[in-house]
Amino acid sequence: MNNDLSNYRKSYEKSELLLSTVPDNPMQLFQTWFYEIDNSGTTDEANAMTVSTIGLDGFPKSRVVLLKKYTHEGFIFYTNYNSEKGKAIANNNNVCISFFWHAAERQVIIKGKAEKIADNLSDGYFESRPKGSQLGAIVSNQSEVVERTDIEEKLKSLEVTYSDKPIPRPKHWGGFIIKPVEIEFWQGRANRLHDRIRYHLEEDYSWKIERLAP
Ligand SMILES: Cc1cc2nc3c(=O)[nH]c(=O)nc-3n(C[C@H](O)[C@H](O)[C@H](O)COP(=O)(O)O)c2cc1C
């Protein structure tokens, strides 16, 4: 097999990012960028982000999840705490999340500490999900080896069990919040001279802002 992609080339020219105009707080810039991409009509699931963890086997692993909320404290997603990523985080809560918004020629890379959110917050979000997704969370021992027929049978039986009653959130399913320690904003520019602005959280909880070479 020889699939040579060396001619794939694109010039990034849509915008710029200047130290003189960025806000002091990176969450403010994240909010602006998220708002812009989400309202541009160009991007499905602008909240899809790649989460990388350090696994129990020592390898980093990345996978896509959906950002469900962000606040000044951090970025929240939901998952199975017993999944491969859940076990990785229990062992080492240093994680990295990243967004690539192709239409805006923008990337955001966030290093942070993952923590389980409070049970009542996970309960609230679980209750807001469609019934099918709630049952899916119960049926799937995420990341374990499985037969498709087994999960489908389990789903059918649970549909009967819960046909007339609310579905309780399984304790092994809930949210993680990623509290950022470093956030890098990347804006594509011409001639590969991209703009990269990095915010680093200092000991006094202020953000140090620096430009990085592309
Ligand atoms: C667009 C998209 C959104 C996803 N959203 C989630 C999510 O919010 N939570 C989740 O646990 N998995 C989500 N997944 C599935 C994960 O990528 C992954 O397969 C799963 O979490 C198991 O990962 P793990 O075995 O590394 O723990 C999503 C996948 C895609 C492609």
Measure the end-to-end span: 32 Å
- Count of DSSP H/I helices: 5
- Percentage beta strand: 25-35%
Number of strands: 9
Sheet with most strands: 9 strands, antiparallel
Radius of gyration: 20 Å
Helix proportion range:
25-40%
Low-confidence stretches: none
Structural shape: globular
Q: Give the class from helix and strand content and strand pairing.
A: alpha+beta
Write down the overall mean pLDDT: 97
How would you portray this structure in words?
Strands 1, 2, 3, 4, 5, 6, 7, 8 and 9 form a nine-stranded antiparallel beta sheet that branches. The chain has helices at 26-38, 84-91, 119-128, 131-139, 148-161, and strands at residues 48-54, 60-66, 69-70, 75-80, 94-101, 106-116, 173-187, 195-201, 207-212. It has 214 residues and is an alpha+beta fold. The two termini are 32 Å apart. The longest helix has 14 residues, at 148-161. The protein binds flavin mononucleotide. Flavin mononucleotide (FMN) binds next to strand 2, strand 4 and helix 2.
SSE diagram, text form:
Layout: H1 26-38, E1 48-54, E2 60-66, E3 69-70, E4 75-80, H2 84-91, E5 94-101, E6 106-116, H3 119-128, H4 131-139, H5 148-161, E7 173-187, E8 195-201, E9 207-212
Antiparallel strand pairs: 1-2, 1-5, 3-4, 4-7, 5-6, 6-7, 7-8, 8-9
